[in-house]
Amino acid sequence: MDQEYGSKLAYVLVEESGSPSVRELPERRLALLDEAVEVAKALDTANPYREKVLRRALGARARLGA
C-alpha cells in the first residue's frame, strides 16, 4: 500500500465514521473504524503520520465503546 495513500485513507475512514450518514448505525461505524485501525497498523513505522493516525483511529474506536 502506498504510504501516503494509507495515511489519508485511515484519516478519511475515521472522519466518515462520525458523519451523519452512519451516526446512527453503530455496526457500520465500527466497521469503518476497524478498517482505519488496520490501515494505520499496516503503515510503515517510518511513516511520519503512522502514530498520529493510529492513535486517532484507536481513540475513535474506544469512544464508540468497541
Summarize the structure.
The protein is mainly alpha-helical and 66 residues long. It is built from 3 helices and no strands.
Structural class: mainly alpha
Q: Note the total helix count.
A: 3
- Portion of residues within helices: over 70%
Unreliable runs: none
- Rg for CA atoms: 11 Å
Largest sheet: none
Proportion of β residues?
Answer: under 5%
Could you give the order of the helices and strands? HHH
Shape: elongated
Instruction: Give the CA-CA distance, first to last residue.
Output: 26 Å
How many extended strands?
A: 0
Mean pLDDT: 92
What can you tell me about this protein's structure?
The chain has helices at residues 3-17, 26-42, 50-64. It is mainly α. The mean pLDDT is 92.
Keywords:
single chain; 66 residues; mainly alpha; 3 helices; 71% helix
Give the secondary structure arrangement, pairings included.
Elements: H1 3-17, H2 26-42, H3 50-64
